[in-house]
Amino acid sequence: MRSALVAKQYQDCQFWLYHLMMAALSIQLDRARRTPLAAQIYRAIREGIEDGRLTSGARLPSWQDLAAQLGVSRGTVRVAYERLIAEQFAIGLGPAGTRVAEREPRSSMPDRWPEAPLLPDLFYEFGSAPLAFQMGVPSQDAFPFKVWSRILTRETRRVAPVTYPDPRGDPELRKEIAAYLGLARGIRCSPSQVLVTGGFSGALGLAIRGLQLGSTGAWIEDPGFPLTRTALGLAGMPVTAVPVDAEGLDVAAGVQTAAEATLAVVTPGQQAPLGMTMSLPRRLALLAWAKRSDAWIIEDDYLSELQLKGPAAPALASLDHGGRVLHIGSFSKTISPALRLGFMIVPPELSRRFGELAACLAPAPAAAVQRAVAEFLREGLYIRHLRRMKRLYAARRETLLRCLEEMASDSIKVQATAGLAVVVLLREFASDMDIALRAPPFGLAPAPLSPWYMQSPRQQGLLLGVTNLSERRLPADCRRLLELAG
User: Is 349 helix (H, G, I), strand (E, B) or coil?
Assistant: First the structure.
């Protein structure tokens, strides 16, 4: 059965690759022209190679497939391919097919679609192994890959390949998330209130659409997660930066600055990026504001229960008796950001609307991954994994603090230990963006602090992630960081 499934997946892959190639070729034959059909095919493929639609190494369709697609004889296609090979536009590899030859790009050809870095202030480089001090990536050397691979393989086999999965999320995963949140975050909810999403950003997009707030204003923390600020702006919502202090979001300042706002996005458990927990009086004041103003609160449960010192505070949603809080969490920092798996808990009266929205615009991610996470939760492996990670991250954070203390320098000052990071401030006139840009060639990826601020002056500092530190290399990494900051 497994071999049959693999064969089917391979056939599907080849099918789509073939049609993508045909779309790139875009061969239009004119049988009324005097130009031979073989010459027209040759010209269309050559133009595709020269203008970059067919990249070096791309496999061309077989003679038989292309002939059937175009309604010509195989000999006609063969003549076109032989000419391409003779002029070194393609390489014939026998049974391995015909591929586009390696070619230097034409210097005269402008890049019509230059690809700029995506959110460079926030992300180092997508799809690459994490570097020292990098934020947002769980430990790569302590994750139980063998156990996880076993579960994922098993659940991949079990997923029915011919049925549509529930767009709100796999029922078993929604059930396990509801049970887990009741135990770990104090939230009483039913599986019907749980929606599985494409990470935090997927949940945030679903919330913005579902609440239908239009161009009304929103509060965000200052400093606060840049992605949230950007997302609200893209949705056409004006944002107001509300300062945070030792007790979290200053609700009174928000009311004074933007009383007409209808949304607040907060990280009450561990403020991102400074790490303080919102006090109970501030939580109650925020809930009272939402009820009084008919407003909504999006609780970004940043780092959820990954509190490295003492027990985690209950979620803000656990205090919500008026149905004004949408609670968002993810498995990015506890299992892996590569899963792109998050969840959102909505008030009961919004369950149907958000379910329909998910079905139409943002269905839950791959079913096999969802089932694997559900099993990870059900077997108790998730909680055991978190306990191990808390001990590991706490030890690595203390090692980093000790290392920075031993190498005391005027260039940086440790301000706080914030969740899975250490916040250091830079001396006056230093540029955290400049340091962050110069660090990767040395195997370091500290995150600049200033992009997290909206109001000026923006604090210059660095966020040093502790999850992927190497004790052996840490002294050298700290010395190099201090040299960059100096």
Answer: helix
Task: Quote the CA–CA distance of 135 and 250 in Å, as a whole number.
Answer: 26
Asked if residues 31 and 37 have their Cβ atoms less than 8 Å apart, the reply is yes
Q: What residue type is 193 in one-letter code?
A: Q
**Domain at 21-100, CATH from 1.10.260.40, 2.40.50.870, 1.10.1240.10, 1.10.10.10:** 1.10.10.10
Ramachandran sector of residue 194 (left: φ over 0; alpha: ψ -120 to 50; beta: rest) = beta
Helix (H, G, I), strand (E, B) or coil at 330: strand
pLDDT, position 47: 87
Question: Helices (DSSP H) in 26-141: which residue ranges?
Answer: 37-50, 63-70, 74-86
Q: Which fold has domain 145-383?
A: Aspartate Aminotransferase; domain 2 (3.40.640)
DSSP string, 188-250: ---GGGEEEESHHHHHHHHHHHHHT-TT--EEEEES--HHHHHHHHHTT--EEEEEEETTEE-
Tens digit of pLDDT for each residue in 143-158?
A: 898 999 999 999 988 8
386-485 maps to which CATH number? 3.90.1150.10
Q: What are 99-111's pLDDT values in tens digits?
A: 888 876 555 445 5
Residues 6+ apart with CB under 8 A from 439: 133, 445, 446, 481, 484
* 8-state DSSP, 134: -
| pTM, 2 dp | 0.78
Q: CA 310 to CA 327: how far, in whole Å?
A: 22
- Whether 21-100 shares its CATH topology with 386-485 is answered no
Cβ atoms of 220 and 258 closer than 8 Å:
no
**pLDDT bucket at 25, cuts 50 / 70 / 90:** low
Q: Where are the domains of the chain?
A: 21-100, 145-383, 386-485
3-state SS track over 424-455: EEECCCCCHHHHHHHCHHHCECCEECHHHCCC
Say if residue 348 is preceded by a cis peptide, omega within 30 of 0: no
